[in-house]
Amino acid sequence: MGKIISCNNQKGGSGKTATSINIAKGLADIGYRVLLVDLDLQGNTSSKFKEDYEEIDGIVEAIQGKVRIEDVIYDTDIENLFIIPSKLEWLDCLEEMAREDYLMEEQEKTNTSVMKIRNLLEPVRNDFDVIILDNNPSYKTILKNCVYAANLIIVPVNIDRNAIKGVDYTIRYISRVIYEAEEDIRPNFMILITKTTRTKVSRECVELIRRSFPDIVFSTTIANQIAPAEKQTFYDDYFMIDNPNTKVGKDYRSLVEEIRKEMDL
Predict the structure, then answer these.
(1) 25, 254 in Cβ contact below 8 A?
(2) How many Cβ atoms sit within 10 Å of the Cβ of residue 265?
(3) Which among 54, 58, 205, 259 is placed 20 to 30 Å from 161, CA to CA?
(4) DSSP bridge partners of 196
(5) Would you say domain 3-263 falls under CATH 3.80.10.10?
(6) 50/84 Cα distance (integer angstroms)
């Protein structure tokens, strides 16, 4: 059965999409069959692989029960890498799931809303080695769904003054969801430090995060490099892992190897 990785951080702009895409590409390149699921209504991940992502069926129609999950899995130009796209209408689904989640908690009923993603992916888990969920930071219901579905939750965190607050909130919330879960769920979670530099401030911030969250921080950190970032922004190229001549490319390759060991792939 395929293992599920979820990239989550309740703080926006933490690098969830870049992390998801580069991990997916790295695993696919070394032969793993990978499904990338876009759970962000902005569709940033979808746009990198499907130009017509807003016009085709995807996660929205699958959650609504209009199509089978098998019918919204699309191949990409990359061997072994497949995608389930998102679109702006995902917002309506998220709001409906949030209302259902609230009502179930208020009425103290079995909360099936937190199982939607897990149940949706169940029929296709055996078709993939790894399924990667790229998430919307704004809805706690989606985070709950990811906690119920995932084997490993990666929490990307940028080096800035609010980094620890954002990651601390996310880790605490994940821990609470696990503690309060009606199912026996045991996802691991790891912090990924991104956008590091060679400055003293950056080094001190990395050490502070490691001290604050011992044993759950990846050894690999992802460098912040202007040239790859500009290429990603202006030339629509998210595959920083493809450039072995850059520090960030080497970092993502190192991260993929660390994930393989962490998940026993």
Answers:
(1) no
(2) 14
(3) 259
(4) 223
(5) no
(6) 10
User: pLDDT digit string (tens) for 199-234?
Assistant: 888 888 889 889 989 999 999 999 986 554 444 443
| Percent of the chain residues topping a pLDDT of 70 | 91
Rounded Cα distance between 66 and 21, Å, is 27
Here the tokens at position 57 are 């069926």
Q: How far is 164 from 86, CA to CA, in rounded Å?
A: 29
Q: Which residue has the tokens 């601390």?
A: 168
How far is Cα 170 from Cα 166, in angstroms, rounded to an integer? Answer: 6
Residue 236 burial (CB < 10 Å; 0-12/13-18/19+)? Answer: exposed
Which range scores top for mean pLDDT: 25-29, 41-45, 238-242?
Answer: 25-29
- The structure tokens 């029929």 sit at 123
